[in-house]
């Protein structure tokens, strides 16, 4: 073997030794992470977010990380159990709503109060900042990957637009969470709480007159066929409500990865991911609205003066929430004030 050849071989060996572990095992997964999801496989959250995100992680790790998606609660249990499932290691990653376990993650629930949403992208960034500043201890023992919200909810009804408080009186409405239900009840509506999957039956048989949901939910449940009117806040106003979401990972699964592979997870999580999911939900929202338009339904605007009246009615709900945050060891007034400031554009 010539000196040139020998040097080339040795250099190649040295380079191989220097490569990160995941590059030396291209296309051979070192670890497979189980992602447990509540929605059916065809849901846009799975096909348009999770599947591309999973592929990005796989490609960035050169195949060393595989993520297996289990939709429709295939690993068992019910959606409110997902946070515990990831903590216990039943799954490695999950996507869940803090409101599914009321009062357990109060900082993360704060933006689910009425009128705490602009659009999904901006409000998701606000939520991530709020959690960084006040909510780090809420997910103790869990690796948090992203936080986000959907766009503001609208009132979808069978028999007429909602433009005044009087229009709500006596309406039977399915509420999306406890705080929004309290607000609607204070305005004269009769609110009921049941899973969104039961909402279709309720609208079909007349048990409820409408519901409060974002447009993005419309296509999945064919709300454009079950309701004929949508009432949305005036464009300059905040949305009626938004539920909050957390993308979380088992801490032991994260810490068990090599430094290189933890770096891959870190590069595909955090503030940028929260913003990205929020932007994705704004896209879902636009598509849902177009479905309503194409159906020929009537879309109306809830005037600013009506919304001002409703926001005054929401004041006791905020006070009650501040007390709840205080009881959890937080400065409730500071959290709510900071959330409002961020929504209004503070840095």
- Rg over C-alpha atoms, rounded to the nearest angstrom: 23 Å
CATH fold call of the largest domain: D-Maltodextrin-Binding Protein, domain 2
Order of helices and strands: HHEHEHEHHEEEHEHEHHEEHHHEHH
Quaternary state of this entry equals single chain
Number of domains as seen in the coordinates: 2
Superfamily at the CATH H level of the largest domain?
Bacterial extracellular solute-binding protein, family 7
Return residue spans where pLDDT drops below 50 for at least 5 consecutive residues: 1-26
Secondary-structure map:
Layout: H1 3-18, H2 21-24, E1 31-36, H3 44-60, E2 65-70, H4 82-88, E3 93-96, H5 106-109, H6 120-134, E4 142-149, E5 154-157, E6 172-174, H7 178-186, E7 190-192, H8 196-204, E8 210-213, H9 218-221, H10 223-226, E9 229-233, E10 244-250, H11 251-255, H12 259-267, H13 271-295, E11 298-302, H14 304-327, H15 332-343
Parallel strand pairs: 1-2, 1-3, 6-7, 6-8, 9-11
Antiparallel strand pairs: 3-10, 4-10, 5-8, 5-9
Give a structural overview.
There is one protein chain. The protein has 347 residues and is of the alpha/beta class. The protein folds into 2 domains: 21-152 and 242-285, 3-Layer(aba) Sandwich (D-Maltodextrin-Binding Protein, domain 2), CATH 3.40.190.170; 154-241 and 289-343, Bacterial extracellular solute-binding protein, family 7 (D-Maltodextrin-Binding Protein, domain 2, 3-Layer(aba) Sandwich). Helices cover 47% and strands 16% of the residues. It is built from 15 helices and 11 strands. The strands form 2 sheets. Strands 7-6-8-5-9-11 form a 6-stranded mixed β-sheet. A 5-stranded mixed β-sheet has the order 2-1-3-10-4. α6 packs antiparallel against α15 and α14 runs antiparallel to α15. The radius of gyration is 23 Å and the shape is globular. The chain starts with a helix and ends with a helix. Keywords: Periplasm, Signal. This is TRAP transporter substrate-binding protein. It is found in: Periplasm.
């Amino acid at each position: 073997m010539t000196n040139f050849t020998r040097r080339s071989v040795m250099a190649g060996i040295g380079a191989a030794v220097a490569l990160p572990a995941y590059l030396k095992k291209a296309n051979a997964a070192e670890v497979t992470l189980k992602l447990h999801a509540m929605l059916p496989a065809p849901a846009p959250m799975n096909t348009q977010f999770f599947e591309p995100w999973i592929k990005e992680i796989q490609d960035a790790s050169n195949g060393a990380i595989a993520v297996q998606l289990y939709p429709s609660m295939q690993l068992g249990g019910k959606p409110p159990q997902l946070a515990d499932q990831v903590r216990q290691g039943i799954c490695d990653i999950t996507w869940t709503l803090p409101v599914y376990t009321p009062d357990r993650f109060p900082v993360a629930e704060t933006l689910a109060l009425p009128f705490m949403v602009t659009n999904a992208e901006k409000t998701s960034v606000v939520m991530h900042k709020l959690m960084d500043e006040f909510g780090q201890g809420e997910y103790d023992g869990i690796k948090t990957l992203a936080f986000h919200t959907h766009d503001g909810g609208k009132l979808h009804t069978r028999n007429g637009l909602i433009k005044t408080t009087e229009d709500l009186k006596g309406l039977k409405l399915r509420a999306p969470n406890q705080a929004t239900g309290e607000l609607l009840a204070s305005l004269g509506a009769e609110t009921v709480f049941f899973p969104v999957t039961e909402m279709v039956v309720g609208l079909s048989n007349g048990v409820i007159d409408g519901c409060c949901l974002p447009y993005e939910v419309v296509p999945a449940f064919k709300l454009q066929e079950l309701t004929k009117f949508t009432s949305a806040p005036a464009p300059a106003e905040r949305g009626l409500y938004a539920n909050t979401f957390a993308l979380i990972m088992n801490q032991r699964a994260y810490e068990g990865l090599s430094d290189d592979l933890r770096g891959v997870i870190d590069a595909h999580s955090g503030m940028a991911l929260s913003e990205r999911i929020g932007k994705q939900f704004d896209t879902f929202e636009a598509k849902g609205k177009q479905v309503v338009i194409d159906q020929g339904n009537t879309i109306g605007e809830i005037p600013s003066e009506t919304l001002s009246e409703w926001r005054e009615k929401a004041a006791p709900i905020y006070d009650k929430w501040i007390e709840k945050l205080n009881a959890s060891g937080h400065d409730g007034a500071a959290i709510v004030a900071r959330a409002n400031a961020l929504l209004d554009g503070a840095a």
